[in-house]
Amino acid sequence: MANRVFNFNAGPAVLPPPVLERTAAAVRELGSCGMSLLEVSHRGKEYAAINQGAQERFARLTGLEKTHTILFMGGGASLQFYAVPLNLMPKGGKADYVVTGSWSKKAVSEAKRVGTPQIAGTSEAESFTRIPKASELKLDPAAAYLHYTSNNTIYGTEWHYVPEAGAVPLVVDASSDILSRRVDFSRHALLYAGAQKNLGPAGVTLVAIRKDLLARSAADLPPMLSYAVHADQSSLYNTPPVFAVFVVGLVLEWIESEGGLAGIEARNRKKADELYAAIDSSSGFYRGTAAQDSRSAMNVTFRLPSEDLEKKFLEAAGPEGLAGLKGHRSVGGCRASLYNALAPEAVSALVQFMREFQRRNG
Ligand SMILES: *Cc1c(COP(=O)(O)O)cnc(C)c1O
Q1: Is the predicted pLDDT of residue 1 greater than 80, yes or no?
Q2: Which residue minimizes the CA distance to atom 2 of ligand 1?
Q3: How many Å apart are CA 187 and CA 336, to the nearest integer?
Q4: Residues annotated catalytic, as ranges
Q5: φ and ψ at 192, to 5 degrees?
Q6: Which atom of ligand 1 is least distant from the CA of 176?
């Protein structure tokens, strides 16, 4: 790709170049099987190895090999908003939700179809600019589970601690910061993430569920929505998104080659520190929207002095090879997504552009 840009899109998002190369080769021919990746049967031995390899790699990276089952499901993280309560909440039961942005709100709406989601904490009154402190959470020990959103893609906030749920199973939507840093994954009973931000292409959602929770899936659930059915069939109940799972497997291999989660975390920390430092040293020209203690290392949201300047900034960025810097349509402003695969050079180029733009317009 001669004209590859620095891709700051929020999702689908940048992928590691070696993964793209290997994917392109596999689209031509998968190994030496005489077929394209796009042509193989999901019941064949090639896909069996891809499916199992990706599940095992994810479990290894998170340390969940013994305790959790890894599933690949369709429907995006949005389907999990419904699948989680459907499987884990008794009909008419209750569960705790910490609401830190639009995605958590959507999760709450879906839970209402099954029972009563209780708001255990929220920063909505402060326009979701921060993550509630542990002392602010009101947790119900009788809740079916506690749900939180570890990174708020739209508002640029991220949890810097894992909430203490006691004996209540902890559920996390980690769509936009999955495998971006070291986390005590074992404290989570269920973890889900759409692949298209940090794990691969659109089309597959990863679910890691603690094995004892599989017993909660009622036998009469629609099979496509039942964790127990997908677990029982190793994510082969129906035709899986073969292509997407293949690419996820390569991304997991790439993460291992970057030094695993410790290596990825250091790389991500450095990128985020560089960008936030540029914002903080701009004498207020650039203004970060998230509270200091809640800043996301994945989605850096910022404003300029006026909407006109923001428009000009975004228009000038494109020709400089800086793509995808527009904030989410619901909040406006600018957003730089710094997912795992984004090269550190992309952030340096952005920071240089920001300084130059301020010099000309400040
Ligand atoms: C993008 C995103 C979603 C929605 O994912 P889909 O795969 O489009 O359904 C949910 N939660 C978070 C935190 C996200 O960033």
Answers
A1: no
A2: 175
A3: 30
A4: 103, 173, 197
A5: -135, 155
A6: 15
Please write the tens of the pLDDT for every residue from 277-294: 999 999 999 999 999 999
* Domain 260-361 indexed as CATH 3.90.1150.10: yes
Query: Residue 317 corresponds to which amino acid?
Result: A
Q: What is the pLDDT of residues 121-138, one digit of tens each?
A: 999 999 999 999 999 999
Strand, helix or coil at 121? strand
CA distance 48 to 16: 24
Whether residue 69 has pLDDT greater than 90? yes
CB contact set of 275 (below 8 Å; sequence gap of 6+): 300, 336, 338, 347, 350, 351
- Contact partners, residue 321, CB within 8 Å, separation at least 6: 3, 5, 6, 349
Rounded distance from Cα 28 to ligand 1 centre (Å): 31
- Cα separation, 57 vs 263, in Å, equals 16
- What is the Cα–Cα distance from 336 to 329, expressed in whole angstroms? 14
> Could you tell me how many residues make up the chain?
362
C-alpha 118/C-alpha 98 separation (Å) is: 8
Q: Which atom of ligand 1 is nearest to the CA of 77?
A: 9
Closest among 178, 152, 156 to 279, alpha carbons compared: 156
Task: Write the pLDDT tens digit of every residue in 328-344.
Answer: 998 999 999 999 999 99
Chain segment 187-209, per-residue pLDDT in tens: 999 999 999 999 999 999 999 99
pTM above 0.85, yes or no: yes
- Which residue is closest in CA terms to ligand 1's atom 7? 76
Amino acid at 137: L
Nearest CA to ligand 1 atom 8: 76
| Domain limits, the chain | 18-257, 260-361
Q: Model confidence over 176-189: pLDDT tens digits? A: 999 999 999 999 99
Q: Which two tokens stand for residue 72?
A: 């690949």
Q: What is the dihedral of CA 172, 178, 179, 184, to 10 degrees?
A: -10
CATH of domain 18-257: 3.40.640.10
Residue 2 has pLDDT above 90, yes or no: no
